[in-house]
Amino acid sequence: MAGSPALRAQARHLAWLLLAGAIAAAVLAGLWRAAAPETRTLDQRARDVAVGLRCPSCQGQSVAASESDLARQMRQVIREQLARGRSPGQVRSWFAVRYGDGVLLDPPLHGAGVALAVVPVAVLACGLLVLARAPGRRRLALAAAGVAAVGLATVVAPAARDRPDGSTAVAPGSAAVAPATSASPPASLLSLAPEQLTRRALQALRDGDPALAERLAGAALGGDDRPSAAATDAMLVLGLAQRARHEPAAGDTLRAFLAAAPSHPAAARVRALLAADG
Amino acid sequence: MTARRSRGRVAASALAALVILGCAAALGDAIGVTRAPADATASAMVGIPAPPLSGPTLTDRPVDLRNLRGHVVLVTVWASWCPPCRQELPVLAAARSRLAPRGVVFLGILTRDQAARGRALLREVGAGSLTSVQDPDGALAVSWGATGVPETFVVDPSGTIRARRLGAVTEEWVRRYVDAMVA
Does A120 touch chain B (CB under 8 A)? Predict the structure, then answer.
C-alpha cells in the first residue's frame, strides 16, 4: 500500500506548500484588513469605536449595543469627533480620560492583562521550538495541529469577546432573564454603596431595563428593611421595576414603600399607580 | 537519548506552565481582576483641566466657565426627573448661601431635560438662584464624563478639577472638598 519514497516525498512537499499558502493567505488577509479602514464609511468607523467602549450606565453592554440615553449620546459624540478628523484611538482616549480606563472594553495592559498578551506569544515560540526539533514525519502533523489550533482560536476568540454585547441576561422581556430574587448584580457593583446601587437601578429603569433595575434595587435593599431614606428609595425603584415586569409582588412592594415613607415626593404618584392597578 | 528526553520534559513542563498561567490570566480577566472597577469612574477627571462648559442658562443668558477663572466652581449635572437631584438641590442652595460670599460659584448642567421643568423644580425646592446651563441632548454631560445624575465636580481657581462625586452631594461633602479650598 505504501507508495514509493519519491511519491511520499512529493506528497510531503505538497503538504508543506499548502501550509505555506495558508500562512501567506492569513498574512495577506491581515494586511488587507489593516489597510481597509480608510475605505470604510463614517458610520462603520463610528460603530467600530462604539463596539470597543463599555456603556458606563449599563452592565455588560458596549456603547454600540446599548439603547440607553447615555450610550446614544456617546455614539453621537464618537461620530462628531471622527467627522472632525480625530482618529479612533484619539476618540477612545477622550472617553478614557472622562470615564476611566474601565470604559475601554480592551483597556491598556497591566497586571494579569500583561500575561494574557505575553503567554500566547510564548506558547507560539515554544510550539515552533518543538516543531523544529521534531522528527520529519511528526513535524508535518504537529504543524497541521498548530494551524488548526490557531484557526480555532481565531474563530473562538472574537466570539468570546462579543459575548458582553450579545448577552441577553439583562435584556428586557427576555425569557433568558433569571428570576430577580435569585440573580445577583454583577460582581463589579457589589462594592457600591446602597445609594449608588439605587441610583443605577433608577437609571436602568429609565433606560427601559426593569430586569436589571430590579436586581440592582434588590441588592441595594439587601436584607435591610429599616426605614432609612436609602432603603425607601430602593424599595420604590424595586416596586416600579417589578410593576414594569408585571410581577404580582409589585403591589406589596409599593405599599410597603408607602407605609415606610408616606410623605416621600413620589408617594402621591405611587398611590395613583396603585389605584390605577386596582 | 536520555538528555534529549530530559530536554523534552523540560520543554513540555514549560509549555504546561505557560498554558496554566494563560488560563489563570484569562480567569482573572473574566472575574474582573484586570478590569477597572466601576468606582474607578469617580477618580477619572480629577486632576485634569475642566472641559469647556458654556451655553445658555435656564433664563437664556450666556455663561462660560472660562470667565470664572480665579473662582472655585462647583459644577453639578442634574435633571428635574431625577429624585436624588431633588434631594440634593436644597443642599446646594444652602451651600451657595454660605459660600458665595467667599467667591465660590455654583453652576449646574441641566441635562436631557427642558429648561421650564428645571426652573420649576428649582423654584419648588427653593434653589432658584442656582445658575444652570441647558444641555437638552446630554452632550455636555458626556463631555464631563457624567454617567448619570446627579454628579458633581469641584473646579479650582486655575480651572483644574479637584474632586468629583457620583450621586447626591451632602453638606459634609461640600464642607470637606469646597470649604477647604476657600479657607
Answer: yes
